[in-house]
Amino acid sequence: MSRNQPGDNPLREQIASKLDELPPAERRVAEYLRDHAHEIIFATSGEIGAATGTSDATVIRTAKALGYSGLPGLKREAGRQAIGGTRPSARLRSRIDKAGQEAGSLMDHVFTEATERLLETRRLITEDDFVAALDLLMGAREIVSFGLGPSEMCAHYLTLRLRRLGRHARLINSTGFRLADDLLGLQKSDVMVLYVPGRLFNDVYVLLDHAQEVGAQVLLFSDALLPVLADRVTLTLTAVHSGSGYTGEGLSALLLTDCLVLGLAARDRDRATSTSELLNSLRASLTEPRKRTTRRTRK
């Protein structure tokens, strides 16, 4: 059965294929994950451990034994299944109900998921991949960033930070016929950076087709779409997505962007510092009071 068919349940199938191989404690956790797929989207490893009479370490080991990179990966799989079967308003109500009404509980849920996402992202990014991404960006004539919806913020942020380092950079956040106009200037020596976490639009295929046609290289920030698009791009960086929706879509990608920007600045300190001085000089000029000048009239 294909993953795209309505009856698919990859998480349940994965658990069924591994269940007999697990030791008793991990088997108990796996059965709980199977039977409470919707609830675990919003649960921490500690909460799942408490519900199964085990520990958070056992929960994490179970997720890895089931073939996932960790609990965040398993929760993302459960989240993808939930998205297909529930309305957005129902998912929002579930998030609110699970987080509770108390301020401390709300913050704990958000910060816990943020920590899990960022740690998992760091674990999945190898030093070789990071260095390769820096090499790619350093060699670009111009860096063209693309993102839609919440991901536009990541693309805009990268463009802003790159310009402040003295790099040629521009943002594409258009769709439809306007996208066609924005693609006209793309050249072989350019690098396109795509922020496409989980939803695939036809515009992305148009971008990739045109980049391939002109010979431009592509760096992709994504999560669920990595298996789909990996063979269409030059390099991928995994930015772990939220399974529950507690934290913003671009959280992991923004942090990775900060890492890349710092790496680029370290590789070309003179350009970065001179551009920073120019920026501060321009800002100072903008805040200086101007003397009024009076026009002389001819007598």
UniProtKB/TrEMBL annotation:
<dbReference type="GO" id="GO:0003677">
    <property type="term" value="F:DNA binding"/>
</dbReference>
<dbReference type="Pfam" id="PF01418">
    <property type="entry name" value="HTH_6"/>
</dbReference>
<dbReference type="InterPro" id="IPR046348">
    <property type="entry name" value="SIS_dom_sf"/>
</dbReference>
<dbReference type="InterPro" id="IPR009057">
    <property type="entry name" value="Homeodomain-like_sf"/>
</dbReference>
<feature type="domain" description="HTH rpiR-type">
    <location>
        <begin position="9"/>
        <end position="85"/>
    </location>
</feature>
<dbReference type="GO" id="GO:1901135">
    <property type="term" value="P:carbohydrate derivative metabolic process"/>
</dbReference>
<dbReference type="GO" id="GO:0003700">
    <property type="term" value="F:DNA-binding transcription factor activity"/>
</dbReference>
<dbReference type="InterPro" id="IPR000281">
    <property type="entry name" value="HTH_RpiR"/>
</dbReference>
<protein>
    <submittedName>
        <fullName>MurR/RpiR family transcriptional regulator</fullName>
    </submittedName>
</protein>
<dbReference type="InterPro" id="IPR036388">
    <property type="entry name" value="WH-like_DNA-bd_sf"/>
</dbReference>
<dbReference type="InterPro" id="IPR047640">
    <property type="entry name" value="RpiR-like"/>
</dbReference>
<dbReference type="GO" id="GO:0097367">
    <property type="term" value="F:carbohydrate derivative binding"/>
</dbReference>
